[in-house]
Fold this sequence. Notes:
Elements: H1 2-23, H2 29-49, H3 55-77, H4 84-103
Amino acid sequence: MAWVLLVLAGLLEIGWAVGLKYTEGFTRLWPSVFTVLGFAASMVLLAQAAKTLPIGTAYGVWVGIGAAGAAVLGMVILNEPATAARIFFIALLLVAIVGLKVTSGH
């Protein structure tokens, strides 16, 4: 169950990270509200997952999911550059996430 919570926390991290772009420096009400709520929910789920998972693994996976997902969405919906190098390094992040999962002992 901790892994499910952690993946959900990571997905919410993607949402609030991308949401930051739409807040325009927290000057737009509804994007700001959704971003803050997504952040809070992501933290709560991360904290719950960290009750049973090693913190290094939980935090690393959470950050990795968020970073990889935000980078992909940045390329797909925000027209950020989709270079071969960026895609390669996102793939390395995903390999690291899987490596943390496999070596966590949980």
